[in-house]
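Thread: quick sanity check before group meeting

JM: Hey all, I'm pulling together slides for Thursday and realized we never actually wrote out the predicted structure for the chain we discussed last week. Dropping the sequence here so it's in one place. If anyone has concerns about the input, flag it before I start.
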Amino acid sequence: MRARLRGRPLAAVVPIGIGHNNGPPMATRWGLHVWKKAHAEAWKTPAPEVVKLRLRRAAELGLTYRQISSIMMECGRAPSAIVFTLDALAAPGAAERLRSLGKPKLLAAGIDRDGYAEVRLQALRDAAGGRLDGWRLARNPLAVAAAVHELLAEHGIAPQAALLVGAVEADRSLVMRARLAAFLRADAYFSPLTQSQPTSGPAR
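JM (edit): ok, ran it. Output follows.
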């Protein structure tokens, strides 16, 4: 018997039972079990009061329910500020959208490529009824993350509390470099669907 078992995995010859606390069979990876359980818990339909809170925060930030839920799952909190790249603010209807947002800090950061970025940002602030709280311009791409940090510090906002809205997928790297909460494409943020349905709750 001993000779037949030599060199064979233990799980192949000894039945392994269920782990403690309703865990998985001990032959599986515990981390995978924990991840699956957490993922299932995260996507359960939340309590009505949680839905109402998320709907309110989504409306304040100009997001859909799905967007705010995804961001909160990713970083554990709702953003209190939005940082726009300069190219993101060139989207059609940007001024009107900013004007409709009452609560979050709205900030901008990017590279002044032609020397007129300051003029354009001031014009946008005027068109948005003053709803652009500040901006910081950088000389080159490597300096943008530092500019974002300085801008957030000036307004007393932690980087982890700021959502970045960028024009292109390449802007996503700024989230990592500046340690921001999450990234959203400008075409998704400024889309008519997002603007007309910022408070759609979860499917029941």
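AS: nice. The domain at 48-196 is CATH 3.40.50.1000 (Rossmann fold). The first helix runs from residue 2 to 5.
JM: adding both to the slides.
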